[in-house]
Structure formats: C-alpha cells, structure tokens
# Entry
Amino acid sequence: MAMKSWVESANQAGCDFPLENLPYGVFSRDGSKRIGVAIGDQVLDLHDCVESGLLGRLSTETAQACSQDALNALMGVGRDGRVSLRRELTKLLSEEAEPELRERLGRHLVAMPDVQMEVPARIGDYTDFYASIHHATRVGKLFRPDNPLLPNYKYVPIGYHGRASSIVVSGTAVRRPNGQTKAANSEAPVFGPSRSLDYEMEIGIFVGPGNALGEPVPIREAEEHIFGLCLVNDWSARDVQSWEYQPLGPFLSKSFATTVSPWVVTLEALEPYRSAAGIRSMEHPAALPYLAQGDGGRAVDVTVEVWLRSERMRTEHMDAVRVSKGNLRDLYWSVGQLLSHHASNGCNLRPGDLLATGTISGPEEGSEGCLLEMKHRARPVTLPTGETRTFLEDGDEIVLRGYCERPGTPRIGFGECLGRVSPAQAL
# Structure
C-alpha cells in the first residue's frame, strides 16, 4: 500500500515524487544554492530544516552534509547516513506528522516553478559505458555487418573517460558543435557544424563513498558505493565521431555537452524494483568471478523514454512525440558491475563522480536509444508536422523521462532531462 503525505500533490496519481521516492537535488533561490528534496510539486530546503532543528536526530556529519551547496558530502556519508536521513524525512512528510510539525516544515517548502535547479554535485570525473548489447549489436552491424560485436564485449564492460566540465543540468541549451568530418567520397576532411547530431538515452550512476587509490571495490560491496541514479543525455556528433574515433575512441564528438536530470533517486527508493533477472543467458559466457558475486549483478526495472518536439511543433502548439522507450533491465551489465569493474584496477572513485550506462536499448523496434540505431529501419522518424528526422535539427527539443511502475507499488519518477539544440557558433 502506498504511503500518504500531508503534501497533497505527492499523493496524486502519476506523480513522480511521492513519499516513497524523496530524491535529492540542488536548487538556487535568492542567490544561494541549497540541497533540496522533491516531494510532490514542492522542494524541501534541507539547509533550513537543519537550521530550524527539524533534523536534530541526524549525526553531525549527515546534518552538516545537508547544509552544503552540492550533494558531494551527503553522497560521501554512506548508506547508514543516507538511510537515517530518509527515515527522518519520511516521518516529517508523512500524513501522520503532527499539525505543529507540518506548520514548521511548511515554511521550508518551495514550489518547483519558483526555484532554479542546478547540476546536483561537483562532478570530478565522468565515465561513459557501452552496457547495452542491443545498442552495441545494432551499431556494430552498421560498420561490421558480419561481425557486429567485438570479441571482448561479453567479457569486459566497455567504457571511455568523458568530460566532466561540459555536464549541464536539464533545461540548458545545447549548442551544435563544430568539428572535423570526412565524407566517404572526399579525399580530405572539412571543419564545420556537425550535420549528424544525436541524443543518447542513458542512466547516470552517482558514486557515494569512494575507494582509496589502489584498493578495488568487490562486486559484493559495489552498491555500498552507489548513492543513486539520474537521467543522462550524452549528446553525440556522429559524423565527427566516425572520423575521430579510431584508434582511441570518442573525443570532441562527445565532450561538447552532456545533460543530466536535476534529481538523484536513491537505491533505497528503487529497492521494490530490483530483480536478479538479467538478459545474460546460457548462450552467453558467464561473467568472470570478480563481476559475478553478491548483489552487484542485480538489475533495476527503470523505464526510460525519449520525447522529441521540433521548433515547428512548438510554433503550432503540438505536444512532443515519443520516439523511444527502453528499460534499464535490458542492459548486459548491471550498475553494480559497472562500478566494480571501474575500480577493479585500483582506480579511485570519489563522491560525486558520475558513471553513465551508455545508450539504453531493448531488442524490439521502438526501443532504440538513439537516432543512429534507427538506421536499421527502412524509414526515418516522422513527426506529426510531416517533418522527418535521421538526425537532430536546430530548434529540436529532446526530453528524457524515467520512472518505475508496477501494480501494487508506488510510481518512482526521475523527472525530466531536457535540452534544446541551438545553432553552431560561427568560427
């Protein structure tokens, strides 16, 4: 049975942020950044809650972490601190809270439209993986029809080091990048705006407590080092990528922008949607032992959708259309396996580091997580205006939405991850 909050909007059907969710984010208002918790259509200011004594049962470390201007310190307190804070917030926001307590807490609620959301953490490092075998197979067939998956794919989680400085929060415009491209029939490359701009539907994994340099994270402990998940759109310039990626992989085709959703959903909120089932079957090789022990291999049942709205659609007051729908459980590697593999060589992860899954795709048509993948279809994406898309045009708005939904359990939402394409800067 769903719990109820005295914040009425949290009890409405379809709400992303019921009492069972309580995701964390960072917002700015009146010139200062604060940590907030989403409840219904409101944001609870944790700094003010600490100052007014409403969170007095927390440890000093956890209370101080709630008063910061980024989530890094709170991410670093570990599971016990996170669980104790969640327990206190649930009591305060439950319909069973005393009227006097509700009145005090109500002073620290702010309507979501009245705040500016920020990137939730100071992201020191960003790693992007390639964890969907469906995505890897479809893209591989475009370049290697007879051998789409390279021999290492089913054994090692593939990833590359991304650019943390260009990670932006939902709502930030994304400028079309310039870069080198080379047409197949040209002798030399040219430099100019990318003509093959794409989105990538992904989930982000925020690191909680880190690990010391030289000390791996065992798979059975991997989830102790995960604070929570968010939505990620890892924008990609496919024509730049195809020219630059050999022999060292993506570079300028990826580093111009990555958009994240402002709310981070904790693993505790996602627990009802965990599953031991994955897509690895008897026909696949078993994971090597360092990736095959404990709960780190469990899947998470998160639906992710991509919605597109062109500039013409906005002018004609048309709603966005869904162009893709996938699920995190369809990944070949779990979030725990990604983290444990990242640290397996002794690489030190730190609170607030971001790992992304790579494009999330399923086996069926309509579950492709990017436009490049849709090239296996015989037709481009067609919009209600009659416009077609093989890649993104200036003015296109991409919105990622994520949620967990199952009969008998509350909907756990991730909010939105939005970016609108603006024209390239002339050089």
About this structure: Residues 78-93 form the longest helix (16 residues).
